[in-house]
Amino acid sequence: MQGTVNNVVWSGTWVAQRLGVELEGDEKLHDLLGLALRRNPKRAHLLVSNVLGKHVPQSPAVVYGQGFELGERVRELLGADEAGRAVVLGYAETATGLGHSVADGVGLAPYLHSTRRSVPGVAQAGGFEESHSHATSHLLLPEDPALLAGDGPLVLVDDEFSTGNTVLNTIRALHGRYPRERYVIVALVDMRSTADQGRLDEFAREIDARVDLVTAASGTVRLPEGVLQKGQELVAAYESAQQQGVRAAGAAAAATRVELHWPQDVPDGGRHGFTPAHRERLEHALPAMAERIAAALSADARRVLVLGFEELMYAPLRLAGELERTLEADVRYSTTTRSPVLAVDDPGYAIRSRIVFPAHDAPDDGPGERYAYNVAGAGFDAVVAVVDSAADTPELHAPDGLLAQLAAHAPHVVLAVVPSYVPSYAAAPDGSVPSYATAHDRSVPSYAAAHVPSRAPGRPRATERHSMLPEPLRGPAFSSYAPDEVGWLLQDLSDARLEAPTEEREEAIQSGGAHYAESLPVEYQPSPAYQELFHAALEASAARIAQAVGVVTETVLAERSPRPVLVSLARAGTPVGVLMRRWAQHRHGLDLHHYAVSIVRGRGIDANALRWLAAHHDPADVVFVDGWTGKGAITRELAQALVEFEKAEGVSGFDPEIAVLADPGSCVRTYGTREDFLIPSACLNSTVSGLISRTVLRADLVGADDYHGAKFYRELADADVSGAFLDAVAARFDEVADAVESQVKELLSADRAPTWEGWAAVERISEEYGIHDVNLVKPGVGETTRVLLRRVPWKILAHRGAGSDLDHVRLLAEQRGVPVEEVPELPYSCVGLIHPKYTRGATGADGKAVSN
């Protein structure tokens, strides 16, 4: 039925009745789409999405959720390995925000969108035409040439997949330059005709690649004969009679300007590339930016529109999402557009009103009209216009400009300007424009610099540099482990002064003045009572840990490599790697190589350590090992870092799948257990990890050709229990062997795909407790213990009924004056909350000063 949707008039009824256009397909198709008419010589009708956030103001949660869910489906389709190597490409202007949301859902994928705005100094990586569009030329302007040059899957995102011409032409052009084995096309709706549906398989055979399609709904538009001419006549008649949207000149706009304090070096969108590391920094900054916008709104604003600007869709969408979560108001989101559409004030028509204003960003194709739809007459108390700095021009503020037009329809207009991101090499000293082939060699682009050390001009590949790198450090000169137990691909910083008081570190980290890896916390010296707890916990859990060690080791041997090279992520992964090596030796007589390397959240894995490993071992044999997963941040960090390393160094084969002892966050598929129980090695710091500190990455100590650093605390030898922990667990190997064999058989035939439920739980807790920063929520026994030992804790959430596994947590919390709150239905045994927005003198949940 085309007349109503859920007892509401369908917003395509007006067009359907007058032109005979029929929309057929999935039940939810009419909820997703309406119809309008546009002045276009190639296509009369316009499919108007109700969930895209372009023409129809919509809840930002709905808009973002549509793209994110599609991205999750792509991740499920590709699997963890290929998803970690994927790149997402969105189409300007309509799908820039949708594509970015899809990239978020994929999880580890960098994002790029095409653009119609050329940027001086940035050369093209390609371009293509959109046959049915009113503005056809698309440019591809990635800052990092390697972004499109990899061989991982390319995910192409558009709002609709109609004829398929635009997407297939894009793939054909890129495939000729950067061939790859797999493409995924993503769209909100698949509207191909029956004749077009067979083209995709033919095209895949033509280019000898796999091409998949992921959509939210599918259907067909049936057009009667002569619809184009009839539609053009209808548009002309209505525009002549109504003269809708004619600009009304007025006084210069007096919008309230808000300073967002946009995070430095985070791009405003995907025009030049946007990476997971950029995403993490933006997530951290969003709550404060939304607070600044909210403060500029009047207290009685009950209906608020956040209006983005043409290709600038993602940044205003995320700001709108934060406002929607925090304001007691109806928040909606849409953007301005180049697309000319007829407006008809009828409930059965998708475009009820339009505002017309002059372009205000000096577009390449010259001045012209721009539009904002369904804003006039919508009853908004306030409109927050979000533009980039390139569009903050006199035309924006002119009497007939966008701000003045908005002011005629809303009592309050707020302007927020996002700085336009320009690649680091774009402004050449001599004013010249670099060619695409040489742009990367003129300087290191910030895209690459933000993740892992990129290949500087003339820098050799990894295989040419390994002789420059020192051999691994080994005990007893570095660590209390035996020399054959582990080789540390680190540099010894034992003589450097790196420790800082906990409160000073927390204040510097949260203010953005320092990274957590630039200093070390003062090593916790356990009290006699705490030491007794450690030994009691070790005695009680040794067999349980031994079984988990056996399960994860046997899984690795069965699925990954018969002679794996174990590479632990220092520091928590190192005791687990040693135990896995001992299991392989005890049960199978295998003498496995084992190394420890540094990985730093937000900065990636030690690239020099990877170069050494690639020069001495087959990367395909390397298995990365960690102690446990919390929300999965390190899992994501490793996957992205390996993608960047392959692009920068040309070394492939490293598998990003981490093997862990415990996976309570359901972030990996290779694990010993998914239960969240006490692993005694989490109770202590260096004294259970070979007397080695957490790793350090600081520019004045770690050069481009150096490993990351760490300290060897020789002076703590009397308190060292590293060997005792290993021996206690290894002594139980034989008694758990049968249980290990049985469990491994079950696991090898089970569906172990990560669900990332831990990440979802952390996001929920972050919002429920008003923290708005997932990095301050540390789930699981191990991470909670780290919060109590290293950070400034705010409160501890404990699963109601949790037993002795949390005895040490309760003792540490009591010593630090931190409240423990019992919570039902917590997916972890406990969760540690770091004090949000900490400064020295901050108070805890009970109003008392935080103590150390």
UniProtKB/TrEMBL annotation:
Name the domain of life this protein comes from: Bacteria
* Domain TRSP, residue spans: 268-405
Task: Fetch the Pfam families from UniProt.
Answer: PELOTA_1, PRTase_2, StiP, TRSP
Q: Which UniProt keywords apply?
A: Glycosyltransferase, Transferase
Segments forming domain PELOTA RNA-binding: 756-835
* A single MF term (Gene Ontology): glycosyltransferase activity
Quote the SUPFAM superfamilies the UniProt record gives: PRTase-like
Q: Does the keyword Oxidoreductase apply?
A: no
Q: Where is this region: Disordered?
A: 447-474
Domain Cysteine protease StiP N-terminal residue range list: 479-729
InterPro entries named in the record? PELOTA_dom (IPR028157), PRTase-like (IPR029057), PRTase_2 (IPR041688), PRTase_dom (IPR000836), StiP_N (IPR011215), TRSP_dom (IPR022537)
Please state what the protein is called: Phosphoribosyltransferase domain-containing protein
Q: From which source organism is this entry?
A: Streptomyces himalayensis subsp. aureolus
